[in-house]
Write a structure and sequence with these properties.
With 208 residues, the protein is mostly helical. It folds into 2 domains: 3-16 and 131-207, Endonuclease Iii, domain 2 (Orthogonal Bundle); 24-124, Hypothetical protein, domain 2 (Endonuclease III, domain 1). It is built from 12 helices and no strands. Helix 2 (24-34) crosses helix 3 (39-52), helix 2 (24-34) packs antiparallel against helix 8 (114-124) and helix 9 crosses helix 11.
Length: 208
């Protein structure tokens, strides 16, 4: 079973994770806030932030202390408050108030790594991107789709195995699959339709 077939199996088991925002700016800022933070906490923090600072220019001129209070308790909220304000300033000053649609330009923004950049590209600006978060990393390793623990390597390995037109689907399906079935602890292997070809699933079955 190849990687595309595995993705199709996962697609039948779960509904895709849907982002709460659909414009590049809010996807970008939410992505910066999301690092090492649960989705529920991130979503509530971003809602509070955008209610107070709805535009790039608003956030660029925001008071850092106020931003800290609005986004708390996301992880590293003190650092992230500075990152989101500076990212908004850079977008306004260097990119004419428009979120960049290029990987290199996105990576120059504070708080943005390849995961966040790929999410912006795939969900915000309509380009292809394959975002590797903890769910994608864990699932890829368990199944045997990746042989590295470095997100950048995993991204490239998956891109070689999955058709380009399906890259944007990987993160959304793997996130839900990771939350509902292939959980970090006590995964539901007995209900998983790919357990027979999954390295972790076979080992778990043999030991049960």
């Amino acid at each position: 079973m190849n990687a595309e077939e595995i993705l199709s199996r996962i697609e039948k088991m779960v509904e895709p994770h849907i982002a709460i925002w659909d414009d590049p700016f809010r996807i970008l800022i939410t992505g910066i806030l999301s690092t090492r933070t649960k989705d529920e906490v991130t979503d509530r923090a971003s809602l509070r932030l955008f209610c107070r600072y709805p535009s790039i220019s608003d956030l660029a001129s925001a008071d850092r202390g106020t931003v800290e209070r609005l986004i708390k308790p996301v992880g590293f909220y003190k650092k992230k408050s500075g990152d989101v304000i500076m990212a908004a300033k850079i977008i306004g000053e260097r990119h004419g108030g428009k979120v960049p649609d290029d990987m290199d330009d996105l990576l120059e923004l504070p708080g943005v790594g390849r995961k966040v950049a790929n999410i912006v590209l795939s969900e915000g600006v309509g380009k292809y991107g394959l975002a590797v978060d903890t769910h994608v990393q864990r699932i890829s390793s368990r199944i045997g789709l990746s042989t590295s623990d470095r997100p950048e390597d995993i991204e490239m390995q998956l891109k070689r195995k999955i058709p380009r037109e399906r890259w944007n689907e990987v993160n959304s399906y793997f996130v839900e699959f990771g939350k509902r079935i292939c959980k970090p602890v006590n995964p539901s292997c007995s209900t998983c339709s790919i357990r027979k070809i999954c390295n972790y699933g076979r080992a778990h079955e043999d030991s049960s």
